[in-house]
Amino acid sequence: MAVKKASEMFPKRLIEDVHKWGCMKQTGVSLRYMMEFGSKPTERNLLISAQFLHKELPIRVARRAIELETLPYGLSEKPAVLKVRDWYVESFRDMRAFPEIKDASDEKEFTQLIKAVKVRHNNVVPMMALGVNQLKKGINSENLDEIHQFLDRFYLSRIGIRMLIGQHVELHNPNPPLHTVGYIHTKMSPVEVARNASEDARSICFREYGSAPEINIYGDPSFTFPYVPTHLHLMVFELVKNSLRAVQERFVDSDRVAPPIRIIVADGIEDVTIKVSDEGGGIARSGLPKIFTYLYSTARNPLEEELDLGTADVPVTMAGYGYGLPISRLYARYFGGDLQIISMEGYGTDAYLHLSRLGDSQEPLP
Q1: What is the domain extent for residue 114?
Q2: Does residue 64 lie in a domain region?
Q3: How many Cα atoms sit within 13 Å of 163 on the Cβ side?
Q4: Which residues form the Histidine kinase domain (predicted)?
Q5: Within a 10 A sphere around the Cβ of 181, how many other Cβ atoms?
Q6: Residues 267, 270, 272, 275: is their CA dihedral positive or negative?
Q7: pTM: predicted TM-score of the whole model, two decimal places
Q8: pLDDT value, residue 134
């Protein structure tokens, strides 16, 4: 099948518009600003928000569309990557075709449009993983550095786009849950979120192995701070899932009871830190630099078996396609936090998830 560049698939004027908008400056927002602005979702505020997104989203989407066309080692020509590129160009086209937003009726219509854009991009992560996985077979590992940097930029930008759309859409909820401003929970209990994420990870471990190590959580359940619970759930879920798998596989044939995984939530002045500790045998020091690179996984690759270009629905398994840790770190960094892994080979691993509790750092804009 001949590979078609965007300029052959879409009208010339549209591609020129993509390049023009891709050169414009992006505007970052902070968690605190989203929270303060969204705390009064009046008709006027929703209108201002929609007008901001009408200009900001095409800039961000255009930047990614351009980058998807110019990837090294032939990655841009992989069918899965071409499909993702088309989604980005189509979303840019739809948002640019929308006229100036002047009143509440325009705003409601635009909200429906960006909702559809968000759904269109639901499967970007597994689809890109499929494209990179196809490429991985044909190039040596030293060349993956450039691909890794691109994926960091690409996925960080995607987190931002989805946060902005989701936040705006959720502000329309006529009956928001208590203490929420869009996606943000102003009184989120990290202990409670960690408990829910741990239970979800344990249920998957049970499904795959028939048993699961215990998880002990230490911290004050009444301590709260403003954050996005879905982001924290995703990060803790990934870390606990990794720990459960390591412990389960280390003790599967042992007479000893598998040691519990420990989660400690610490409330600092600048950061809230969540430590996930396991005794799953650890990672060799030579392997540590690889754990934040895409496509590093010690498990079988579910993409090989379960993803086709039509559906791209990837079931959650105990081990993914090597994206859990790098993407979790991006979610942490998106609001000014970080993720660090310290390992003792022969014993276990400690993951430190730092979340900025100040909420005033600007979005990183790749």
Answers
A1: 6-178
A2: yes
A3: 25
A4: 229-359
A5: 20
A6: negative
A7: 0.90
A8: 80
